[in-house]
Design goal:
By secondary structure, the protein is of the alpha/beta class. Helix content is about 40%, strand content about 10%.
Amino acid sequence: MNPTAPPEAAAAASAPGPKASATERASTDAPSSASNVEPVDTAQARRDDAQQAAREARASAASATAAQEASVRDKQRASTNTKASLAENLEAATEAEAASTANSQSAATDSPTGRTVPPPAVGMPPAFSDAPDFSKLNAPVAPPPEQAAAPAQPAYLKQSDSAWSVFGRIVAARARQIFDRAGQRITQRTLRIGVSARIFHPEPGAKGLRGKTLQYLEESIAHWVMSRDVLVFMIPTVGHQGMLHPSNIRLRDYAKHLDGLLLQGGADVSPQSYEERTTRPEWPGDRVRDMYELELLHEFVESGKPVLGVCRGCQLINVAFGGTLYGDIATDVPTAGIHVNEKYDQHRHSIRFPDGSTLVNMFPNQREAIVNSIHHQAVKTLGRDLNIEAVSASDGIIEAVRYRKSPFVVGVQWHPEFHRAGGAELLDCTPLLDTFLRVARETRF
């Protein structure tokens, strides 16, 4: 082996080749060969790396500090230059203003007219001479606004409220509003009062209208009811058995759709309707109208609607509940006073309200009154469940009745439609009409 050869060459020469024997290759694994390998200190290497990283970090920090200081110096130099420039501009402007003033004075002196010419307006922009504010250059950046807090629950809500409970209350409130509006529309609807028809029967052998059956109402009775802003409808007889124009309409349909019934005066009640014989052949009464009005009265009473009977209507109410009539007062009660004469509605007499009469409440502080009198029939035997509301002051003839088992079924023997409202002599029957209409409004449903 060459003693001058490098160690790498010596190691290569000493290493067994690929064709070396097994004994030679095994000799390299001997313990004695391990002494030729230098061990590596890994801990020392890590310390060296850490020191190198620290040196690099210090160098980087020093470089950043130097750059920041250089930036500050640049800003200061720029600020100084700006101030110097502003000062130079201010000085130049001052000199220009002084020169302009001198020129103006010279021009004023040289003026041929001798007048002083005002100098031209020379000025600087507003706040031009103010010192600049450099504090805004280094103003701190405003922090971002904080996120708004979640809105608190309204005070009118309960802690136990849920979305469904609130929704339920909203629906209930809306339903109440709808029902209130509907109720107002219904209750404020104009009342509809039905008036029974007078019947004119055809005259034998007559032509034209006199040969026809006519149904009509007296104008004053309609206007009296309409004076309280009420709609009035005449209720005709029904022709469900008619040969020419049969109909399925019944009187109960009128009782269903109207709010009250007024039975107007007219022909006598037939004695056949209360099972008595006719005292005078010239007063047979009107059996056809009796049957029509008795059915009409029955339907309104069954519907709970109010009924007001006038003259004949008062007598019909008594007959409907089983009472009887005097066919002719002068014949049947010779001692009675005069209840009808040729003066017609100008004839009058006095009545009084007995104890327990509801008319006392309608006409307070009045136990007697003056009314017209146009009837020759009158109540004889009082019908069942009827009360006497007024009597004739001179002879005790019944002048008004009331059915106890209904809200308002009242009959008066006089004609209130012929009394002037607010009249000084005759009884003002407006309270009677108002009570009738009030009950009609209360019982309309």
